[in-house]
Design a protein that fits this description.
There is one protein chain. By secondary structure, the chain is mainly α. It contains 9 helices and no strands. It is globular. About 6% of the residues have low confidence.
């Protein structure tokens, strides 16, 4: 099987047809990442496409000794940050997370939204953006701590601490919404 890194090396060297395989492998994951972090399907589609456009534009900057997955997620984070910077819409404060519960269930077709899941998503969107991001990357996207460390440019130990703290805060928010 051809690895992601081999495909990206080919893209870097001008074989742009190989980019379609990378799109097939990562477009759904990135779309889900963006939908979970923005709660907007259309924006999720736009940002996903922007990641692949940027991948082609900056293909020469890819380093073969690095994980493609970490590189593409780092690019996704940059696309997300640039989008909010350009639109002068700094990260939402998510102060009305309770009102988002209905929207969140609709935001992800793959989720059979039970009441507990709705509370979980509402709790997730009450977290600080960086906490929400690290939970989405580790728990929803299933990235390894090492990969997240590469994306966030920090150590694995630092990722573990951040995940621990984010999960602790998530639990507190969940308990508050649940009325405990």
């Amino acid at each position: 099987m051809i690895t992601d890194e081999m495909l990206m090396s080919a893209v870097k060297n001008g074989d742009l047809k190989q980019a379609s395989f990378l799109f097939d492998r990562y477009s759904k994951q990135l779309y889900n990442f963006f939908v979970k972090i923005t709660l907007d399907r259309d924006l999720g589609n736009d940002l996903t496409q922007n990641v692949f456009l940027r991948m082609l534009k900056y293909r020469s900057s890819y380093r073969e000794d690095k994980s493609f997955k970490s590189w593409i997620y780092q690019m996704a984070r940059n696309v997300y940050a640039d989008h909010y910077r350009k639109n002068k819409m700094l990260f939402s404060d998510f102060s009305e997370a309770e009102n988002l519960m209905g929207t969140m269930a609709a935001a992800d077709e793959n989720i059979e939204a039970g009441e507990q899941e709705k509370l979980l998503y509402a709790s997730l969107f009450k977290l600080k953006p960086e906490q929400r991001e690290i939970i989405i990357l580790t728990k929803f996207q299933g990235l390894k701590y090492e990969e997240v460390g590469n994306i966030l440019d920090c150590t694995v130990a630092n990722v573990k601490v951040r995940v621990y703290r984010a999960m602790k805060d998530l639990k507190e928010k969940f308990m508050q919404l649940e009325g405990r």
